[in-house]
Structure formats: C-alpha cells, structure tokens
C-alpha cells in the first residue's frame, strides 16, 4: 500500500511539473490573436437548423454554435465573446486558410484530401452521420437505386456530389443533381418542386424536412451512401497548441457526460469535488489540465456551466428539445455510439 501511494504521489508530482513547464512553452499565434482582439471568430454554416441558425431574436443557435461558445469560454472566459461568420460550403476552407476565421465548425466532413492537400487539421468529430436522401412521398420510391432519372437538390463544393457520381457509376444509373451554395436555397428549391428530393448528411436532411411547407409529404430513404461521414471542426496546420485546445474542448464535454457532470450539478461538483481524481481534474482543483492547454484551470467548469456537456448540447439542438433526431451513432461509446475519448489523466 505504501509503495502504491508513493507511486501515485510521484505521478501527481510529474503531472504538476509537466504542467508548469508545458504551460511556459505554449506559443500559439492564433490564441495570441484571439486574446488580443478579445473575440473568437468562428466559421459556421450560413443557416441550417441543428448545426447553426439564427432564431427569432437573431441569436445563433445549434450544435456547432455551442462549440464556438465553448471554445471562447475556455480561452476568453465568456461564451459570448464570439463573432460568428456564416460560410458557404464552397468557400469555407479558403476562408479558414486565409485567416479570416480562427476555427471552422460547419458540418464539414473529414476526408483524406482535406487532411493532406488542403493543409488543414481535422480536429474532433462532433457529429457522425451518413449521406441521406429525402424525397417526395408521391414518387413512391423506396430505395436510392430507384432514383434513376430523378433530380436531387444539394450543396455545391461538397463530397455529396462526388458520392452521387460514384453511386451512379457503381449502379449504372443516372441521378441528376441541381446545385446550390446555401442550404436554405436548396431547401426552398426542393420545396418549390424544382427537384424530386434533397440530400445531405442525416442531420441536415432532418433539418431540411422541418422547414418544408408540408413535412409529412417527404420521406427518408432507408439507406445512406458514401460511407460513414464524420463531421467536425477544422483548424489551420502549423498551430498545434491552438488545435489541441479546440480538440480538448470537445473531449471535456464528452468526459463530463460520461461522468454525469452537467449544467445542474457542476456547481456542487466544484464546491465538493470529493476524492475522485477525474472529477478533481475536471473542476480544476488537481493537476494543471487547463494550463497544459494554455488556459486557466477553470476552463472546464465554465464550459459545462454555460454550454453543457455533449449530451445536453445534442439534446438542445438535434435531440428531443430540437429536431427530434435520435442520438444513434452520436451516443457515447458505452451506450452503443461512436463518441469516444482519450483517457482523462
């Protein structure tokens, strides 16, 4: 027992020492620029329910919006210190590469080309989905393969078009496409009868259906194409400390859900952290987990208090308080989903 205690004491000492020296080494041009301006510039969608949209009061809402606020909360101490920039699918990556935005969180799929040729960093998957089709019920179509000759509305500059082209070739059919730069334009075109259906990732299609004049006139086809679509945040390559912070904002929200820490009980956890090392690190009373990321040790407490854990954010956007889309693949790993996280020590 004495040997184990000594070992733990040494480990704790190493964490503290590493935290001190690591914090002194953090040099991030992006983080420095954000602190100097006092505001995070976050690239989001131009407007799509679930991910990012403006409510009746003109306030941005959505899963991706919540992540922008969480990052600002970690670095600047407030979820309100964010400037939201709506980006189209066509220009989103060039806007990030040019430095017009600090981070892109815009229902964007991770891919080989984006990770390599575009010199971007694919940081963290905040939404798993697949390319889904919604068609008019009157078509009587039961499968994507039955869409031969149909016209589908979708966004330009995405992998959606490539997936359809590959599907056409593999199945020797011809699904026609009508391209738009903004999702709301594509929704409206489909609703106006210019297309027989609409395609995007599952979350976007659910959002699209909610905006139709008669949602019950539209049905989802059962299969998806293009394989699993991991959507998430992107940063520019070359600023690893900034990328690391963005990544751990995501992980801390997952970890909070895994540990049952939420908006309601975070205050009590902070006041009475008990002996659980994971909880103590989460609320900043043990180790230097904030300083290791270039922020203070209250960063996680602020995020959970102001934005919530991942499950709370999902429920408010895509879940029962939002679009009513089941968690499915976006559940935690221990509940049958794909959302996993590294060890919290």
Fill in the keyword field for this structure:
single chain, 345 residues, alpha/beta, nine-stranded mixed β-sheet, two-stranded antiparallel sheet, disordered N terminus
Q: Portion of residues in helices?
A: 40-55%
Number of strands: 11
Q: What does the oligomeric state look like here?
A: single chain
Spans of at least 5 consecutive residues with low confidence: 1-17
Largest beta sheet, briefly? 9 strands, mixed
Q: Looking at the structure, what is the overall shape? A: globular
Which structural class is indicated by helix and strand composition?
alpha/beta
Which percent band covers the strand fraction? 15-25%
Q: What does this protein structure show overall?
A:
The chain has 345 residues and is of the alpha/beta class. The protein has helices at residues 2-25, 29-37, 63-76, 92-97, 112-116, 159-171, 183-191, 202-211, 240-259, 266-271, 277-282, 299-306, 310-317, and strands at residues 40-45, 53-54, 60-61, 82-87, 103-109, 120-136, 151-155, 176-180, 197-201, 218-220, 225-236. Strands 1, 4, 5, 6, 7, 8, 9, 10 and 11 form a nine-stranded mixed beta sheet that branches. The protein has a two-stranded antiparallel ribbon with strand order 2-3.
Can I get a quick summary?
Helices cover 40% and strands 20% of the residues. The protein is α/β, with parallel strands linked by helices and 345 residues long.
């Amino acid at each position: 027992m004495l040997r184990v205690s000594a070992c733990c004491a040494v480990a704790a000492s190493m964490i503290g020492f590493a935290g001190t020296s690591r914090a002194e080494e953090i040099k991030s041009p992006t983080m420095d620029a954000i602190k100097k301006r006092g505001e995070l510039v976050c690239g989001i969608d131009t407007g799509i329910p679930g991910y990012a949209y403006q409510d009746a009061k003109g306030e941005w809402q959505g899963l991706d919006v919540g992540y922008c606020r969480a990052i600002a909360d970690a670095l600047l101490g407030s979820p309100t210190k964010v400037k939201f920039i709506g980006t189209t699918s066509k220009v989103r990556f060039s806007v990030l590469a040019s430095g017009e935005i600090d981070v892109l969180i815009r229902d964007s799929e991770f891919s080989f080309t984006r990770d390599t040729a575009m010199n971007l960093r694919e940081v963290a998957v905040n939404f798993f989905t697949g390319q889904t089709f919604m068609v008019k019920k009157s078509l009587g179509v039961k499968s994507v393969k039955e869409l031969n000759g149909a016209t589908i509305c979708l966004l330009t500059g995405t992998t959606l078009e490539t997936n359809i082209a590959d599907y056409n070739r593999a199945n020797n059919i011809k699904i026609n496409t009508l391209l738009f730069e903004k999702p709301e334009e594509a929704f409206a075109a489909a609703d106006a009868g210019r297309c027989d259906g609409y395609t995007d990732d599952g979350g976007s299609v659910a959002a699209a259906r909610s905006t139709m004049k008669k949602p019950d006139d539209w049905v989802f086809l059962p299969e998806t194409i293009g394989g699993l679509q991991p959507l998430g945040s992107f940063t520019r390559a070359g600023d690893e400390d900034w990328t690391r912070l963005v990544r751990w904002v995501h992980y801390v929200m997952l970890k909070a859900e895994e540990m049952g820490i939420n908006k309601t009980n975070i205050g009590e956890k902070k006041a009475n952290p008990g002996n659980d090392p994971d909880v103590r690190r989460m609320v900043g009373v043990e180790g230097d987990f904030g300083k290791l990321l270039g922020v203070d040790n209250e960063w996680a407490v602020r995020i959970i208090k102001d934005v919530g854990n991942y499950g709370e954010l999902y429920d408010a956007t895509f879940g029962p308080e939002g679009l009513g889309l089941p968690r499915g693949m976006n559940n935690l790993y221990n509940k049958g989903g794909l959302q996993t996280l590294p060890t919290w020590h």
